[in-house]
Amino acid sequence: xxxRVREVAKLFAIPEKRIYEWIxxxxxxxxxxxxxxxxxxxxxxxxATARQVHLSSEIFGGQENGSGPPPSLAxxxxxxxxxxxxxxxxxxxxxxxxxxxMPLPDDVDRELLFDVxxxxxxxxxxxxxxxxxxxxxxxxxxxxxxxxxxxxxxxATPIEFGAMDGKPVHALFSLISPTVRTHLxxxxxxxxxxxxxxxxxxxxxxxxxxxxxxxxxxVEVALTQPVIAATxxxxx
Length: 236
Description:
9 helices, about 15% strand, Mannitol-specific EII, Chain A, five-stranded mixed sheet, alpha/beta, 2 domains, about 240 residues
């Protein structure tokens, strides 16, 4: 579902006129339909994450219906794996290493995945700043994988990645999802979690797999607690 200006302003907690300014001056992704702007949720998440702009947790809602609750970020990280001390020399070799390490089913075309990730980077770098990149496919159903996963590669040496802040990248999170709904959920959860100082510090210092997973779980619990509390309050 595409969003309107009013809805996007609410997500960013800013006046609607600021949205028009951001479209003109800051490249906020939007398209015009019958003279009115429409916004794609995934593109907004990517834009906000790259610029470290705060988004309301309501970005998680309003997605397509699914057959069950989407996985937690910690569960997706556990499924995708955390790889320490990955040795690469440039962006292309980093993407190849990500694809090589992902625990994908045998019938998945890894060369196709590499080509899709490389094409995505050609459009715009997924380096979101502070040494972190989130390589992912724009069309998550292109691979038809059975479950979602997030693979984290912590590089032995930082590399140039074309990030907006100009800093070399040392950590790459790559998302693979079977549905658009799950892709949006994990992308939004990752964007939110990367704003947490404890989680980010664990990634930056190349902490153990267990510690990174523990930090991801901690952030998600804190995120869901206000929702649970609000639900209970509404049931009284």
